[in-house]
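ok trying this again, last paste got cut off
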Amino acid sequence: MSVGERGQVVVAKIGSSSITADDGTINEAAIAKFCREVAGLRAAGHQVVMVTSGAIAAGLPAMDFDVRPRDAVTLQAVSAVGQSRLMAVYDRELAGHGLTAGQVLLAPLDFMVREQYLHARATLGRLLDLGVVPVVNENDAIADDEIRFGDNDRLAALVAHLIRADLLVLLTDAPGLLTADPRFDSTASLIEEILEIDHSLEALAGGAGSDRGSGGMASKLAAAKIAAWSGVRAVIAQASRDDVLLHAVDRTAGVGTIVQPRTQRLPARKLWIAFAVGAAGTIVVDEGARRALLERGVSLLPAGVVDVKGGFDVDAAVEIAGPDGRAFAKGLSRFDAAGLRSVLGTRTEHLPEGSPHEVVHRDDLVVLP
């Protein structure tokens, strides 16, 4: 998929709180607006992938739940009921504009396992080539609670990387990232452009969103960071704004918060490790190992490890910290915590037979920005 004469490749994501009413039912008017704007982009020659939340929210009233259940298995059952109802609305609204919707349900392993990653890319690419509008959601009904996106903002950012999109639009209830919480500060104003997402901006974004959604401004900023490291421009904007998608494509002033892309592009697997999976522990290394990882891009060996913090399993994500305790990298550990403690500081030739030679292989290691 290339931009060329077909215009831009756009991933547009809308959250549960923007497409459901206060009682949890689907707000069909909000979905109709979203589909109408996607149709406008298609008419202008752009390719669009829609990412939608809302399956669980759509399933709650259908199953007579007054409040959102807390246990994962019930939530998965609710999403199975809600997903078909959600797609029925998208099918109808897109058909009204002469467009065909194609449901695509993705799971984290579709980005972690290269064969599945390539299959997902091929499927989305073929749908776009056929003129279909892919409507993507997480496969909540069978998702492993330990291995999931957590919110569809991250999913949308990874899809943008997957299809080499030009633009990621994250639609929300706010006009973008503000300088303060407008509920408590009347002087709060829109931050229109971000060149680099730092800790101060992440602190400004705050916590989770509404009861009907799993995200919030913090998750949207995290997704925008993933997009930036994918070389994709991101816009956080208000779903209710008129012509919001067209304005995001056209770079209209004040459309929302624009996060500019970086020139360096990370592979999808490293994007997932760096930004989309939580660290289960910390591996502390000596100065020599720290320099080798930063300057030579090598794998981390047991000989360079001086301490292990936390408990984690094989293939868990871990932070890697230097002697000062400051994390500078993240990766997937080939040891569990107990196994690594038993061999820390051990040179490769003295490792027990059958023991991995690398603690974190360089292919599974990311130097943190």
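PB: full thing came through this time. The mean pLDDT is 88.
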